[in-house]
Design goal:
mainly alpha, three-stranded antiparallel beta sheet, 6 helices, 41% helix
Length: 147
C-alpha cells in the first residue's frame, strides 16, 4: 500500500491497496493505539516516522535494517525477518485465531482467497480444528445447546 492512501479515521485505518485499489477499513488494535499515542506528534498518518516526527521520504530501508539487526542481536526476532514476512505472520495469526480465508482476504485487502491460503499455509490449527470437531453433535440429536 502507498502510505499516502492511508487515513486514520474514528479508530480505524482506512486504506486503499496498491495492486487492486480495494478499500479496507481495519480497526486500530489497543497495542497499536498505545504505540501511536507514544510516537512523536505529527499530522501524518504513517505509523513509521523518522526521528524528526516526519514521514519517511528516504533512508527507511537503511534504518529498518539497523533496527532489525538490533532486534536480532537481542534475540527478539528470528533471522530473515522482512516487512513482507510480517504480512505472512498476520495472515497466519488470523488463521490460527479461527478466521476463514475470505475474512482474512478482506482484512489484507486481497481480491480472492488464494493468497490468504498461501500466506497461512504454516498455520497451526490444532485449537481451531479441536473446537470444530468437538463442537459438533455427531449423534444428530437436537438439544438446546446445538440448535
Amino acid at each position: 500500500m502507498k502510505l499516502d492512501d492511508c487515513r486514520l479515521d474514528d479508530g480505524e485505518f482506512a486504506i486503499k491497496t496498491r495492486k487492486s485499489g480495494a478499500p479496507i477499513r481495519v480497526p486500530v488494535h489497543p497495542i497499536l493505539a498505545e504505540a501511536l499515542a507514544q510516537r512523536p506528534k505529527s499530522d501524518a498518518v504513517q505509523i513509521c516516522l523518522n526521528s524528526d516526527g516526519r514521514p519517511w521520504k528516504t533512508g527507511f530501508n537503511a534504518s529498518w535494517a539497523k533496527f532489525r539487526n538490533r532486534l536480532l542481536a537481542e534475540g527478539k526476532i528470528g533471522k530473515g525477518l522482512t516487512l513482507h514476512g510480517l504480512r505472512h505472520t498476520l495472515d497466519t495469526m488470523l488463521k490460527e485465531a479461527g478466521l476463514d480465508d475470505a475474512k482474512i482476504a478482506d482484512v489484507l485487502g486481497q481480491s480472492g482467497i488464494m493468497m490468504a491460503r498461501h500466506y497461512s499455509k504454516e498455520a497451526i490449527l490444532a485449537e481451531v480444528t479441536k473446537e470444530a470437531v468437538l463442537g459438533v453433535d455427531w449423534t444428530g440429536k437436537k438439544t438446546n445447546e446445538n440448535v
